[in-house]
User: Fold this.
Amino acid sequence: MILEGKRIVVTGVLTEASIAFSVARMAQEQGADVALTSFGRARRLTEHSARRLPRPAEIYELDVTQDGHFEDLTAALADRWGGVDGVLHAIGFAPETCLGGEFLAAGWDDVAVALRVSAYSLKALAGAVLPLMKEGGSIVALDFDARQSWPSYDWMGVAKAALESVARYLARDLGSLGVRVNLVSAGPLQTMAARGVPGFLDLSGAWADRAPMGWNSADADPVAATCVALLSDWLPVTTGEIVHADGGFHSVASARSQA
Assistant:
């Protein structure tokens, strides 16, 4: 029960295949009181998935492109709990023009959406929960290794690189307040978000072949367990890190690079 008594906010729950859903479920199993966020048409998916959790979870409206929603979230969580101990940022989106292999075709308006939703939102979410983390806390965000380019990932890869930088600067500025900020870089999983990137799931076969521990793209639980560990008190001085939950894929050179 490593999250006993913790108050945890989880964004990004859509289907039961979502990493965020597994985090919410495991957090409850480990003793946390969990609240979810969603908005618009996606809210019906979130509500459906929330009914599969071990215990009921309140769902708060949060569209990260609406500044007022962050203020409302702070007020709602203050009324409910009075404080927050941890939050999972599992938010990412890029318009179709930003994905699929036509990197040069994307215009600034679409790129700006990808960067705001996928990277700047981490700063905005941290700002919303920070007033409620008076005794410190943990902010964890989901990442996909941005050290190299990936087929079809295009501007989402750029957004993930920005997310990694945002996390480092937040870790710098929030450390003195006892707030840790870390990223979990997962391997490819069969989530709704992954299906939105053309050809992205084709990576899973190569991942399973190359990762020293193998890789099961249908199982989000190992990644979720990593997130839950970071949300707990068991890594009290770990911040500004990118923790890879990818079967070790990132540590092994490809045949092409070895040649």
About this structure: The chain has nine helices and seven strands. The CA atoms of residues 15 and 49 lie 6 Å apart. The mean pLDDT is 94.
